[in-house]
Every structure is written in structure tokens, then in C-alpha cells.
Amino acid sequence: MPWISANAASTPLYRVGRREQRVRVDLERRYLGGGEALQRAFASVPIPRDAEPAVGPDGHLTVWQPSTDSLWDFYGARRDPAGWHARWGGAIRRVSRSPGYYTPRAWPGATTSWGATGSGLPVIGGTMLLAELSAGRIDHALAMNVPAARAGVFAWPAQRTDGVGSPSALPEGARLRLDPALSVRALRLPRLTAMIARAAQRYGLVVRDQTRHAVSLFGENPAQFPGSPYSRLLGGKTPGELLARFPWARLQVLKMRLCTRPPCRRR
């Protein structure tokens, strides 16, 4: 059953000011390619004192500082008495002008091996923010995970893959859209489902990773928000019930060029 992941598999987004205190994040896998440069990018990160990564094995955490136009993307983030640690991740300077994935221009020493997802796309990319859902409009493409992405190949904007699926499976980076001829209004969908459908029609969906069990979309992890913000947004339904009304049969797969190594360009 399709699902909206907003807890363990998603990420909280901490938007911080220019004066936020900076801390060092120790990278546990700095021995990997690009690891030494990534540790330098993690040497001074404006993480709020009360920040909490997503609970669960992925431990995602995203920090965005608009004043410096910088974003930090963590996988396996945790804090202990010695300070902050992460298993992997990425960082992007001039993020407002970034193509939305890791290139050598993302940060000094950056490589396409950076990033907290199997495709190399930042985990916050395509995530539905709580503010967007409350406002009733999502103005960007949506991230989508599939049960098993095609093995060995990927498509732009992905820059790598951890896919284990068959040759008939969608590759990471594949782009889809909801049929533009479909009238979303005529479907009389629940409010959240209609928001998702309109975003899928206007901006599309991008396969970002794989789940090994189901199709998943992503909502912002609510770690920093009091109460249960999704209770109101879901209107008493489960994510599965809301997505069961989504017109999946009207999705269209867009033309793509398959890649086996980076850089993977659109054409």
C-alpha cells in the first residue's frame, strides 16, 4: 500500500539564522571517497541546540541557513556527550542556485558520492513541508521511493543508485507526472490527496530511493513541532487511505536517458 513517510524515513528541516551557534559534526565514514572533504564541510554547522534527528536507523537531519545560502544533509545523525556525529551526508553552498543534486561545485571537494539517499539527491528534496500542507499548496516536484529501483542504472537528476530491482523496474531518478488532461477537481479527492495530485500534475514526481516494501511519498519529519501536526492534516484518515484515492493509473513516465556512472545529465 502506498504511504506517506513522515517519521523514521523522512527528515526534519531546521531553518536557522545567521547567528546560530556552529558545532562540529564528526563524520564516521570519512574513509570513503570524498569523505575528507565532507568532514571539512561538517567542521562548522549551525545546528540548533534543541535539534533532533529523525528517530530510526536512517537518522536524517537537514539544516538550511538562508543567510549563507547553505544546506547540510545528514544520514545517521546522532548526538552524544562528545557532540554530533553522522555516518554520511552532504553539503551545498549557493543552494538556491544548485541543480538540486551533488556535483563538484556543491562544496570544495564535493563529489557525486555525497548525499543522504541512494540516488545522491538530498533527502529534503521533494519532501512535503508542513507549512506547505497547512497552506494547501505544494509548489515543487515530489520525492517518491519505490519498492525496488532498477539495478545498475539511473537517470537524471540521480547521480548514482543502490537499486536492486529487475530491468523492468523504474530506475532512481526516473520522473513521472500525473496526466495533464486529468481534471483533479472532478475526482473530488480528500484535501491532502488533491494537493498531492496537483503537485504531481504541475511539477511531477522523482524516484529518489527504494523502500524494499512499498511506494512512499515524504512529509517533513515533525520532530521540532509540538503536538501531532499531521493529525489535523490527515483529517482522521491514514496516509494509506488518502493515497488509495490518488489516481495512480494516470501517472505517466517521462522520457529519460539511462546512466551507469556520473555525471548523469538530462540529455
Output the number of helix runs.
6
Number of domains: 2
Terminus-to-terminus distance: 34 Å
Class derived from helix and strand content: alpha/beta
> Can you tell me the overall shape?
globular
Largest β sheet strand count, sense and barrel closure: 6 strands, mixed
The residue fraction in helices comes out at: 10-25%
H and E order: EEEHEEEEEHEEEHHEEHHEE
The whole-angstrom Rg is: 18 Å
Strand content: 15-25%
User: Residue-averaged pLDDT, rounded?
Assistant: 96
Explain what you see.
There is one protein chain. The chain is α/β, with parallel strands linked by helices and 267 residues long. It has 2 domains: 88 residues, no CATH class; 130 residues, no CATH class. The chain is built from 6 helices and 15 strands. The longest helix is centred in the last third of the chain and has 12 residues. The radius of gyration is 18 Å and the shape is globular. The relative contact order is 0.18. The model has no long low-confidence stretch (mean pLDDT 96).
In short:
By secondary structure, the protein is α/β, with parallel strands linked by helices. The two termini are 34 Å apart.
